[in-house]
Amino acid sequence: MTAPQVVIPATAGATTPDNPWPVRLLTAKMTEYIAAAHGNLAWVAWRRGHLDEAITRAREALATWHAMPVPYMFDWMAAWPLIAATFRQNRIEESIAAARLMFIRTQQPLPSSLADTTQRAIGAWESGAIEETADLLEAAIDAARAWGYA
C-alpha cells in the first residue's frame, strides 16, 4: 500500500466499519503507516459513536507522528475524529487543542472554508466566548464531515 492509499480511503469513504484494511496496517513496518491506521480507526470509531475509542486511537496516531524526526503533514487524519469526539463529550478545551494542530506550518492546509471556520472557533475560545466557540466548533465538525474529514 502506498502513502496516498493510506490517506485517501478515509476521506473517500473506503474506511468503513466493514473494511478492515486499517487493522492490517497496524502490522506494517513503517511508523507513519501504523499511525495512519490508528487515525483511520479513530475515524471509524467516531462514525460508530465509540467516542472513547476514537479519542484513544486519535491520540495514539498523533503521538506516534509527533515522535517522528520528520513532521508528518496529515495530522487532520486523527485531529478531526479527536475534535469531534471530545466536542461530543463537552471537552471543548481538548477540541481546541486538537484544532490548533492543523495550523502548524508543517501541516497540509485544510480547504479554505473549513480552515476559516476552525480558526474562528480557536479565536472565539481565545477571547473567552465559550458559546460562540461551541457553535463554531459544531459548524467546523459538520463541514469537516461534509468534506470527509470527520
Radius of gyration: 14 Å
Distance between the termini: 23 Å
Q: Give the oligomeric state of the chains in this entry, treating copies of one chain as homo and distinct chains as hetero.
A: single chain
Give the helix level as a range of percent.
over 70%
Which outline best applies? Answer: globular
What is the H/E order? HHHHHHHH
Report strand %: under 5%
Task: Count up the domains.
Answer: 1
Poorly predicted segments: 1-12
- The secondary structure category is mainly alpha
- Separate helix tally: 8
Number of strands: 0
Main sheet record: none
Mean pLDDT: 86
Explain this structure to me?
The chain is mainly α and 150 residues long. It has helices at residues 3-12, 21-25, 31-48, 51-66, 76-88, 92-101, 112-126, 130-147. The chain has one domain (3-147). 70% of the residues lie in helices and 0% in strands. Helix 3 packs parallel to helix 5. The protein is globular. Residues 1-12 have low confidence and may be disordered.
Task: Provide a quick synopsis of the model.
The protein is mainly alpha-helical. It has helices spanning 3-12, 21-25, 31-48, 51-66, 76-88, 92-101, 112-126, 130-147.
Structure keywords:
about 150 residues; mainly alpha; disordered N terminus
